[in-house]
Amino acid sequence: MTGPEPWLRGPLPGIHPLVQPLFFSFAQVREDLAKHTTGLPPDAVWRQVGPLPALGFQLRHIAGSVDRLMTYLMDRPLSDAQMTALRAEAEPSASLEDLLAAVDASLNEAEQRLRAIDPATIHDARFIGRKRLPTTVLGLLVHIAEHTQRHLGQAITTAKLGREPQS
């Protein structure tokens, strides 16, 4: 049996309680991706199973969406490079190792930024996308954790299906 999930391991020293759920979410992503992608056949990374996006897309989307949402959290617009990366998320070109490294790098960068969040700003306005849809710092914090977990679940499912023999 494995140990408890990250959120059940106790508070994280030096991390403000308001942002700890994101650290727990990111730890869960790292652990579950390691567990469910170990030994995955290389051809399964970009294989599309039924109507599901490929695992490679899910991994790129986790890394990219965390980066983009953190940009909005910092009250900045997306860069041209971020928009280019968004458009390329489904292009099959990277290995599983490279994709997992990109997820880890994106999560590490986000954690560094989260350490600097001033808790007094949680109700500050933030705006998403070209339409500048309104939210708050707290809304973004919740969404970053939720969105990352949603795509983690999809990545796990796709990885499991990728282990099935092709018919």
Structure characterization notes:
With 167 residues, the protein is mainly alpha-helical. The protein has a single domain (17-35, 51-162), classed as dinb family like domain (Four Helix Bundle (Hemerythrin (Met), subunit A)). The protein is built from 5 helices and 2 strands; from the N terminus they run H-H-H-H-E-E-H. The protein has helices spanning 20-37, 55-73, 80-87, 96-115, 137-162, and strands at 125-128, 133-136. The chain has a two-stranded antiparallel ribbon. A hairpin with a 4-residue loop joins strand 1 (125-128) and strand 2 (133-136). Helix 1 runs parallel beside helix 5 (137-162), helix 2 packs parallel to helix 4 (96-115) and helix 2 (55-73) runs antiparallel to helix 5. The protein starts with 19 loop residues before the first helix and ends in a 5-residue tail after the last helix. The mean pLDDT is 95.
In brief, what are we looking at here?
This protein has 167 residues and is mainly alpha-helical.
Element layout with pairings:
Layout: H1 20-37, H2 55-73, H3 80-87, H4 96-115, E1 125-128, E2 133-136, H5 137-162
Antiparallel strand pairs: 1-2
Helix pairs in contact: 1-4, 1-5, 2-4, 2-5
Key features of this structure:
167 residues; 5% strand; 5 helices; Four Helix Bundle (Hemerythrin (Met), subunit A); mainly alpha; single chain
